[in-house]
Amino acid sequence: MRKLLACLFVLVAFMFSCESMEQEASYTIGFAQCTGGDAWRQAMHDEMRREISFYPELDLIIKDANNNTSLQAEHIRQFIRQGVDLLIVSPNEAEPITPLVEEALEKGIPVIIVDRRTASSFYTAYVGADNYEIGKLAGNYVGELLGGQGKVLEIWGLKGSSPAQDRHRGFVEALQGFKDIRVVAEVRGEWEKEIAKSRFPDVYQQVGEVDLVFAHNDVMALGVYEYLKSIGQEKKFKFIGVDGLSGPSGGLQFVTEGILDATFLYPTGGEEIIRLASKILHKEPYDKENILNSTVIDSRNVHIMKQQTDKILTQQKSIERQQEKIAEQIEIYQSQRVLLYILLGGMVVIIILGALAGLALREKQEMNRVLVTKNREIIKQRDEIEKMARKADKATEAKFKFFTNISHEFRTPLTLILGPVDDILRSNISTDLKKDMQLIKNNANRLLHLVTQLMDFRKIENKKMKLQTAERDIVAFVHTIASSFKRLAQKRRIHFAVESKPEKVKVYFDADKLDKVLFNLLSNAFKFTDDGGVISVKITISDTCDRVILMVEDNGRGMSAEHVKHAFDRFYTGDVYNNLSTGLGLSLSKEFISLHKGEIAVVSERWKGTRFVITLPLGKEHLQAEEILLQEQEEEMVALASLPYAQEIEVEAAEGVEAAAQKQYTILLIEDNEELRGFLKQRLQKEFTVVEAPDGLLGLSLAFDVVPDLIISDIMLPNKGGLEVTATLKKDLRTAHVPVILLTAKDSIEQKIEGIQSGADLYVTKPFNYQYLYERVKSLIQSRERLKDQYSSEISVDASLAAPKQLDKKFINAFTAVVQKNLANPQLSANDIAESLGMSRVQLYRKAKSILGYSINDYVVKARLKKAKHLLLNSDHTITEIATEVGFSSPAYFSTAFKNHFGVSPSDFKASHTVKE
Ligand code: FRU
C-alpha cells in the first residue's frame, strides 16, 4: 500500500513538473529602456507585451533608466552578467552606450537597437523610423506652411540622442531650400514637456516673436503651447511636432484640437521588435535595418488617421480582453488538467489496488484450499493416532495385566522360599551358612516387596485400592515402625530418634498403607545417610489444629533439584547412583497419602539432606463411610498385620573382622553393591585380609594407604569408575605392582579391551562363579610372589637387572640408588629412604616387601655387607676402614654381621682370598 502511494506521489509530481516545464520561457530578453515615463514608451511596451503573449517561449525583462545614461549603462552590464539570450537597447545617448552594446555582442548576445541609435553600426538589428527623413519631411512641410518666409524656433530633444541629432539635420537641410526661412533660436527640451516649457520663456524674451515652433516631439510642442497660452499669445505661432501618437494625450489629438498644425508619425514599433527578436532567437532569417515609415498628420488627414488609430486601439483593447480570457481559460485548463492527472493517477492506483486485491483473493483461496487439504490430512492422522493410541492402550493394558499376573505368580514361590529359609535360619547351622541364608531371605523379601508394590499400583490404577482406616494413635504407630530400624541405626552409628510434640495423636489412617509409606521413607533415609549421620521422625500438629504433620528428615546425600522435581513421578529413578529405590516407592507413597486426603512433599539439597513432610487431616469428615473400619474388622486386621516390611530390616551378623596382621595377604574390594561386596568379603576373608570401599574414590585412597596385595574392583562405580581407578593405580609408583581384577556386568569386547588397556590384570564378567574368581585371585598372588622372588634374587646380585614391569623397575632402581648413596651412613633408616622416594614409610615398607620379599633393614644390611665383600676383595682398606665405609658403627658389629651372613669373618674372608690370588 505504501509503495502504491509513493508511486502516485511520483506520478503527480511528474505531471506538475511537466506543467512548469511547459510554462518556463526558453529565452530571456533584456530591454535596457532609456525611459519609461512617457506615453510613447508606454505604448511601445504595451505593444511588445501584447505581441510577446503569442510567444510563450519568450520572457521579457524591461529595465527603465529614467533618462539616466549611466543607469542605463549599468542595466546593460547587469543583463550581460545575467546572460540574457537577447538584448534590446534604446540608447539614452549614443556615444556612452555604444561600447556596452559592442561588449554584449562580443559575449555572443544579439542586440536589437530600437528608436535611438548608437554611434556605430555594430549591432544585430535596428527597428525604428528614419529620423533624418522625418526632419526633412518636417523642414519641407514648414517651408510650404510658411510660404517660404518666416522665423522658426527649434525645440531640441536630448542633444546626445540620435533622433534629436538626425531630426535637426534633416530639418535644417530641408529649410536650405527656403532662403527666407530662418531658425532664429533653439531650446534644449531634452524630450521632456516640462523642461521645454520652463526653458522656452528665456529664449522667447531674447528672440522676440517667431512664426513657427518646431519641436522634436509633440509633448515638448505642447509644453511651449501651454506656456504661450498662459500669456495669451498662442495664436501668434504655428506648432509642429513629431510622434503622432494616438490616444487622448497623443499628437493626433493635439492636431485634432488645433494645438498643433501638424505632427509626423513616429511609430513605436513594439510588435516589430518582438517579431524580430523571435526570428533572431530561433535563427530565422531577418533584416538588419527595419525602418518604420513616417508620414505627416495635419488637419487634412487627422480625422481619417484618428478613426483608424481609434479602431486599432479598440481592436487592441479587444485583443487584450481576449488575451485575458485566454489566460483565464488557460488557467482553468491547467487546473483541470491537474485534476485530470490526479483522477488518472487515482484510477491507476485503484486499478493496481484492485489487481492486488484480486491477487490476494486468489492467494487466499489457494491457501484455503491447501489448508482444507492439510486439515483433512491432520484429521486423518489424528484418527490414525487415536487408533494407534487405542491399540497401544490395549497393548499396555494387556502388558500390565500380564505383569500383574506374573507378579502375583511370584508371590507363591517367594513365600515357599522364605518359609524353609526361616526354618533353616532358626536351626543350628554354621555362621557362614547363616549369612548365606540371611542373604537369601533378604533378597526374597525384597522381591516380595517389589511384587507387592507393583500389585498396589495396579489396584490404584484400576481404582480398586480401598482405604481402610481406623482411629489409632499415630505416635505409637510411628514408634513401632521406627523400632525396626533401631538395630540398623546402632550398627551404623546413625543418630535416629522419633520426636513428638503431643505424646498421643489420634488419627484415622490405614495402618497397612501408612506403614508402607513410612517404611519406604525410612528405608531411603537409611540408604542415603552415611554412617554416623542423623535421621529423625517428628510428629506435630498444624497451627490450624486440623492436621497432623509427620516429618522424616536426614542429613544424608540429598537429591539434585531435578530429582526433587520428579521425586514422586512413577518409575523416575534419576541417575544410577542417586535413585531412591526403584522409583515406585515414593510414587506409591504419594498415592497412599492422597487416598487419605493428605499431602506429601519433599525438600532436599545435594549433600545436605532430605526432608519428607506428610500432612494428614484429623477427624473423619473427609472420609467416606466405607473407608472407616468397624471395631471387629479392625481387631481382625490388627491380628493379621505383621508389619510386612519390618522383617526386612535384618541387621547383618557382626562381622568377624580379623586382624589384618594375622593373614598374609590383603585384598582391597571396591564394589558399590553392598550385598555383592558382603558376599565376596565373607568368602575371601577366610583366607585374606579384606579391606572394603563402596566407591572408586574411597577405593583409590585405600589402595594408596594400604597398598594391598590384590584389588578386586567393579567397573561401574560411584565417584570414580573402575577403569579410571585401575589406570591411576598402575601409573603410581606406590601401587603399580598391585594386580587388579575388574568385575563388570558388561560383556562387550570393547569393555574388555578398555579394561586391559587401563592396566587391569584380569577381567571377570558378572555373573561369575566365585570359585573361578577365587582361583584367579590365588594364581595372581602366586605369580606376584614368584616375581618378588625373582626381584629379590636379582637385587641381591645387581640392582639394575630388568624387572618385567616398567614402574617396578623404576622403583627398584630409585630404591637401590638411594641405599647405595647412603651406605656409609650408619643412621640410614627406612624413613630417610621413603622421604627420598616421596613415599610414606608404610608405603615403602609394603612396596619393598611385596616386590623384594624382605624388610628395608634386611636389605640395607645386605647391601652394606655386599659392598664390604667387594672392598675386601678389591681394596687395601683395613677392616676398620671398610666397616666405617659401609656404615657399621663398630668393627666388632661389622665382623659379627659379616660372619652371620657369609659364615666367615671378614679377616678370614680377606686372608683366604688373598692367599688364593
Ligand atoms: C519618447 C520620445 C519621443 C521621441 C523619441 C525619440 O521618449 O521622446 O517623443 O520621438 O523619444 O527617441
TrEMBL record:
Limits of the Histidine kinase domain: 405-620
Superkingdom: Bacteria
Keyword Coiled coil found: yes
Modification 4-aspartylphosphate occurs at: 714
Residues covered by the Response regulatory domain: 666-781
Coiled-coil ranges per UniProt: 371-398
Domain HTH araC/xylS-type: 813-912
InterPro entries: CheY-like_superfamily, HATPase_C_sf, HATPase_dom, His_kinase_dom, HisK_dim/P_dom, HisK_dim/P_sf, Homeodomain-like_sf, HTH_AraC
Keyword Flavoprotein: no
TM ranges: 338-361
Any matching Pfam family: HTH_18
GO molecular function annotation: ATP binding; DNA-binding transcription factor activity; phosphorelay sensor kinase activity; sequence-specific DNA binding
Keyword annotations from UniProtKB, A to Z: ATP-binding, Coiled coil, DNA-binding, Kinase, Membrane, Nucleotide-binding, Phosphoprotein, Signal, Transcription, Transcription regulation, Transferase, Transmembrane, Transmembrane helix, Two-component regulatory system
Matches recorded under Gene3D superfamilies: 1.10.287.130, 3.40.50.2300, Histidine kinase-like ATPase, C-terminal domain (3.30.565.10), Homeodomain-like (1.10.10.60)
The enzyme's E.C. designation: 2.7.13.3
Signal peptide (UniProt feature, chain positions): 1-22
Catalytic activity of the protein: ATP + protein L-histidine = ADP + protein N-phospho-L-histidine
Protein name: histidine kinase
Native organism: Cesiribacter andamanensis AMV16
